[in-house]
UniProtKB/TrEMBL annotation:
Membrane topology qualifier: Multi-pass membrane protein
Protein name: RDD family protein
UniProt keyword terms in alphabetical order: Cell membrane, Membrane, Transmembrane, Transmembrane helix
Localization (cell): Cell membrane
InterPro entries: Pra-immunoreactive (IPR051791), RDD (IPR010432)
Transmembrane segments annotated in the record for this chain: 41-63, 84-100
Amino acid sequence: MQPPSLLRRLGALLIDWVVASLSAAAVAGTHYPPKDIKENLVITAFFVVEMSVLTGLLGYSIGKRILGLKVENVEGRPIGIPRALVRSLLICLVIPAIVMNDDKRGIHDLAAGSRVIRA
């Protein structure tokens, strides 16, 4: 099974960030672009929650669904919310997401016991 391209993964991440930004603006009244660090933290919190819940329960976020990607464990099932939360928090740190092994699994995927595949 060949892992999806980095461009497709980055596209999904961008879509998910836009969804989180719009959600934060609608629910919490943040601005886009954010005016200060507080608004950035609110958007990041929305991003982490949305990614964790959707990826943990369904196996994909909105961006991943649009671009035909799926996150699964080694048995091919969704990873669950606790593992998805670890994965999402590590994505926010950036470095764990860009340091990959030969199988194109980042540190965030290795820590969560997950892999990204084409759906």
